[in-house]
Write a structure and sequence with these properties.
The protein is mainly beta. 6% of the residues lie in helices and 66% in strands.
């Protein structure tokens, strides 16, 4: 499956580039190279043996864009190269990332198709992804995502989103899986500051069969969650924007009814900006395999210290039930724009995972140097 997806990805990306070239489209290139030295007190989030390592990490990323009329094609290729000072705890890694996007926009329709191949260490996955602790492993994600929106009138529009993911894990305890996520939404704009929307959404999780002995007879089964939402988007001022939605949600394994919802706020001032996002939503617990109810929260704050320096704060948590599992993350970073192309930053973060195995914590501090060049 992974090979077929990767080959299809390359064919689509090549066709996109060829189409753009034949049309004599405008070509854009950008390069970003991030170099880090990071000390990690517990890279594998081990409960019983929290040994640390120092990472030397390089993350080159090249983006190519083709624009022709209403069509846009983007191809992004990147690597994460990591060298560990203690390979007994965490091994050296080279993880690729490849993403291709086609976009179309006209007066009535907007459409997008994106293909992604992304491999990363388990310690680097998002806080909402509950993976096993104490494992020096990796997850490879293959995904195809599409969206389409049509303007029905001057005040109304409708759209659909569909995303298909395939997840593969190097450790035998975590099941490979497929996840299908879909939603349809109708939006009506009441005035310049307020709009209402209604949506139906669903997720379908399927574990992939494996021949590993650890997976035999695991009892993991498919699960589905589906529901509806009614929401409002309100601009209280030029600086403050709110979005709130809620509705019923049904899980089929085990069968139970519940509710889903989201509350988010964004505020922008002269020297600082920030936001908060609170959600109750279905998500996958990759440790046990299946869709569970998740309560999630995120917050971010950026304060401009001067013309070239800023202080960035981020925090996130994810609490899943059946079984109960909690992930939390907090970070603070000082960022200085040294020159137009060079940026230096110092970042500190704390990660915490609590689940069936116990509680694991990791403290990380990093020095980061970033080079960026656009319109190459």
């Amino acid at each position: 499956m992974a090979g077929r997806i990767a080959r299809g990805f390359l064919v689509v990306a090549g066709a996109a580039g060829a189409t753009a070239a034949l049309a004599q489209s405008r070509t854009l290139y950008s390069l970003n190279v991030q170099t880090e030295i990071e000390r990690d007190s517990n890279p594998n989030m081990s409960v019983t043996d929290p040994r640390g390592t120092t990472w030397f990490r390089v993350l080159p990323n090249l983006t190519t864009g083709y624009v022709y009329g209403n069509e846009e094609f983007d191809l992004e290729a990147g690597l994460t190269v990591e060298k560990s000072s203690n390979t007994d705890v965490a091994k050296d890694r080279v993880d690729p990332r490849l993403r291709g996007v086609w976009k179309h926009a006209d007066a009535v329709d907007t459409a997008q198709l994106a293909l992604l191949v992304d491999r990363r260490a388990l310690r680097a996955v998002d806080v909402r992804e509950h993976v096993p602790v104490g494992v020096d492993g990796a997850r490879t994600l293959y995904s195809i995502a599409g969206s389409w929106t049509r303007e029905l009138s001057a005040r109304s529009r409708a759209g659909v989103d569909l995303n298909q993911e395939w997840d593969q894990y190097t450790d035998v305890q975590t099941p490979d899986s497929r996840l299908t996520v879909g939603a349809a939404r109708f939006t009506w704009q009441q005035d310049e500051r307020r709009s209402w929307y209604a949506a139906v959404n669903g997720q379908y999780y399927r574990p992939e069969p494996r021949t590993d002995a650890a997976q035999a007879g695991s009892g993991r089964t498919s699960s589905m969650a589906a529901g509806a939402l009614l929401g409002i988007t309100q601009s209280l001022s030029e600086a403050l924007r709110l979005d709130a939605s809620a509705g019923p949600m049904h899980f089929n394994h085990p069968s139970k009814d519940g509710w889903q919802g989201r509350l988010s706020a964004e505020y922008t001032a002269q020297r600082w900006s920030g936001g908060i996002d609170l959600a109750r939503t279905p998500s996958v617990n990759y440790t046990v395999g299946g869709l569970v109810e998740s309560r999630e929260g995120r917050a971010h704050l950026r304060y401009e210290l001067g013309p070239r320096s800023s202080l960035n704060l981020q925090a996130a948590y994810s609490l899943q039930s059946d079984p109960e599992s909690t992930n939390t993350f907090a970070s603070v970073a000082w960022v200085h724009q040294w020159t137009p192309g060079w940026q230096v930053s110092v970042r500190g973060s704390v990660n915490r995972q609590q689940g069936l195995e116990g509680t694991a914590r990791s403290n990380r501090i990093a020095l980061v140097l970033t080079y960026s060049a656009s319109d190459l």
